[in-house]
Amino acid sequence: MRTILFFLAIGLVVASMCIGLTAGSVQGPKAHPDSPVRNIVYAHVPSSICALLCFCVLLVAAIGYLKTSKESWDRLAIAAAEVGTVFAIVMNATGCIFSHAEWNTWWTPSPRLISAAMLLFLYIVYLILRSSLSGAKQRIARNSSVFAIIAFLNVPMVIISARFMPDIHKASFEFGSNWQRVAFFLGMISTCFLAGLLMWFRTDILSTRARLEREFVN
Amino acid sequence: MRYFLLSFKAIFMKDIVTEFRSRQVLPTMIVLGMLIIWVFRIASEVASAEVSAIGPIALWVAFLFAGLLAQERSFATEEHQDCIHGLMLAPIDEGTIYLAKLLVNIIMLSIFEMIIVPAAIVAFELTLSRSILTLVGVLMLGNVGLSSVGTLFSAIVQLTRTKGSLLSVMVLAILMPMMIPATFALLAVFGDIPAELIGTGALSVVGSFKSAIMFMVVFDAVFVVACWLLFGFAIKE
Fold first, then answer.
1. Integer Rg of chain A from CA
2. What number of helices (H) and strands (E) belong to chain A?
3. Alpha-carbon distance A90 to B232, whole Å?
4. Which of A111, A150, A161 is closest, CB to CB, to B149?
5. With 0-12 CB in 10 A as exposed, 13-18 as middle and 19+ as buried, what is B21?
């Protein structure tokens, strides 16, 4: 069942890429009409949205843990942070490639680029904190939850900067054809699906490990 | 309320008196701050920007790193002979401990700034383009933001193996967005911001001095309240 779902997600991602790459480029106002780099949008936008969604899941899991002290919330938090890191890396890497091709610079200190880098840093710091905390399991989970909640306070700023501030980075783009629209939304759905699946797998691995540890100790 | 004030005063006095008697952190902070200003001053000779524009930036860098020293100490001292357990056994609200420690850190940073800011003004030949009260206001807003996050995380990192270095990474990652309006405001106080910033960079997005102050007030309020509420979870056994 899992293997089927996993390959379905991968298939959807590949299909959306293929449609995106073959059915022409996205028409941005400034971009050159035959620039193939703009097709990166089919990977860049879905992965940015998934990185943000994973942070929301992380917040919910952190609040859930502080409220209930159930270990399953903590496992969800770890999974969300790890998957979120992957998507944040994809977002920043694709963004850099696009930026180099279109604006002739790898990185520029514009609000949206700063906030994207910040999101990645917050994820990495969360993972570093988790790995360097020592002591009882509950205390590690509680302290990382506290950090996750404080870190989330910066996320509204990421969203505000991505939508409302004047920036070199466009807030939206226009589709040239229905094929592009299909490719884009297929990419969106498949990437979110993939993120959810990865989180599910990771929490499952963690709960199996916890069960093994319990049995081994007893 | 009276009980809150009593316990608040007790913790606050304990920390302040300990620091003034032992004089462990403040001298270190001042030397570090002076060195940072000095290094920036030397480097600014080859910088393409005007020397005076580097001054406020050097100041924020000095505040960030010296502030981290003060914040790390606020719970490191409690770990000696398990003082933290005594503090937690006392019948006081955890929020009170946080607020008292926060105030100590703010005062430490303020004393530090009283020495470092004149030094930077002399070194970089800075001139104030707004009143001195505005400068104090901007510095205080920065102080509160820096200390609020640092005090909370100081309690968390005492459990880690890496302690201080992890604290700096955590605090700097969280404070990154706040540093944009803070830099803008300090540059504006020293008159290094042109009337109109054109472009799409981070500083030009802040727009005006007023909005920079608004940003900082919002950040401070959000961080202080959130850290105060979450502090209980961070020190619970």
1. 19
2. 7, 0
3. 36
4. A150
5. exposed
d(CA B226, nearest CA chain A) in Å: 7
* Contact (CB, 8 A) for B34 and B168: no
Least confident among A112-121, B32-41, B112-121, B205-214: B205-214
ipTM of this predicted complex?
0.87
Reference A77, options A66, A89, A88, A87; nearest CA is: A66
Beta carbons of A53 and A192 less than 8 angstroms apart: yes
Q: How far is CA A19 from CA A9, A11, A22, A33, A92, in A?
A: 15, 12, 5, 17, 23
Distance of CA B209 to the CA centre of its chain: 20
3-state percent helix, strand, coil for chain B, nearest multiple of 5: 80, 0, 20
For residue A74, the distance in angstroms to the closest alpha carbon of chain B comes to: 15
The CA distance from A42 to A18, in Å, is 10
**HEC states along A154-217?**
CHHHHHHHHHCCCCCCCCCCECCCHHHHHHHHHHHHHHHHHHHHHHHHHHHHHHHHHHHHHHHH
Residue given tokens 């159930």 in the structure block: A70
Look up residue A30 and give its two tokens.
């400034």
Give how far B110 is from chain A: nearest CA, Å: 24
Q: Is B23 helix (H, G, I), strand (E, B) or coil?
A: coil
Partner-chain contact A118 B177, CB within 8 Å = yes
B23 contacts chain A (CB < 8 A)? no
Q: Which residue of A has its CA nearest to B231?
A: A146
Tens of pLDDT, residues B39-81: 988 888 776 666 777 888 899 999 999 999 988 888 888 877 7
C-alpha A63/C-alpha A57 separation (Å) is 10
- Taking an 8 Å cut-off on Cβ atoms, the answer to whether B161 and A168 are in contact is no
Domain boundaries, given as residue ranges, for chain A: 42-167+177-206
Does A150 contact B227 at a Cβ distance shorter than 8 Å? yes
The answer to whether B38 and B124 are in contact (CB under 8 A) is no
| Structure-token pair, residue B166 | 């992890």
For A99-146, write each residue's pLDDT tens digit: 888 788 888 877 788 888 889 999 999 999 999 888 888 889 999 999
